[in-house]
Amino acid sequence: MSRTARVRLFLCAAAVIAVFYTLACTGLPHFGTAVHPYGDRAVAATLEQRTANTISSINFDQRAYDTLGEESILFGAVLGSTALLRRTDRERKARPRPSRVLPSTRLFGALLLPVALLTGVYVVAHGQLSPGGGFQGGVVLATALHLAYVAADYRVLQRIRPRELLDGIDAVAAAAFTAVGFAGLIAGTAYLQNVLPLGTFNTLSSGGLVPVINAAVGIEVASGVIVLLAHFLDQALATGPGGNRPCDRKEPTG
Q: What is the pTM of this model?
């Protein structure tokens, strides 16, 4: 496609989006009004779903279909990094060099790693009750694992990070979110419609499908972020046909 054709396609798409965006904005309540239809309905629906966290109820119930799209974006990023950053026939993987870490950094990293992992699990598991959820908890879990890289070196991270297994877990978790939605269709309702008992308000088992989808998102986000960083870190260790690491190559001077 030529540059002129791409520009014309962009202008047409931008014009269509601008029209629909303008129409959507004109239908919003006026600024400063006391009437907020969306907020009132969201809070009411949250209480009906018996979830103490209104945001999680919206993300994983009223707008669960949108959340599925957002999760698919991350899954697509993992697939893209896998395809683009894979080693070619002209590259070979260098042996990671041992790094020097301050004793204080090593100590704090070793102490904070289990605490951060536990915090991530807590944020994911209690997403329907308190601030947090699958996305936030998944990022905490991925960050916690990489404390091993900060406190030790890349070799330690490799030993506790099974990338091939996490690739499969990422795919299974993403597929689980999609598959859960079919439970509503099988029950004769809408896609991603709740079909589980709502439980008791403000308890861990409340919220129906919300904690189930929340857990799937947490696992997918954690494994996806870990795999993404794994590809970037592995690429930093890739060598060319001359045997020099990219970071060791020097530009000619003079």
A: 0.77
- Residue-range definition of the domain harbouring residue 194: 53-246
Whole-angstrom distance between the N-terminal and C-terminal Cα of the chain?
41
| Separation between Cα atoms, residue 70 and residue 217, nearest integer Å | 10
From the list 59, 43, 135, 153, the residue with the least C-alpha distance to 97 is 153
Domain count of the chain?
1
Q: Is residue 154 part of a domain?
A: yes
Residue 188 CA, chain-centre distance (Å), reads 30
Establish if 1 belongs to a structural domain.
no
- How would you classify residue 9: left for phi > 0, otherwise alpha for psi between -120 and 50, otherwise beta? alpha
- Concatenating the DSSP letter of every residue in 137-179 gives HHHHHHHHHTHHHHHS-HHHHHHH--HHHHHHHHHHHHHHHHH
Indicate whether 81 belongs to any domain: yes
Q: How many CB atoms lie within 10 A of CB 110?
A: 13
Cα-trace Rg, the chain: 23
Q: What is the pLDDT of residues 7-27, one digit of tens each?
A: 999 999 999 999 999 998 887
**In 10 A of CB 87, how many CB atoms?**
13
Whether residue 252 is contained in a domain is answered as no
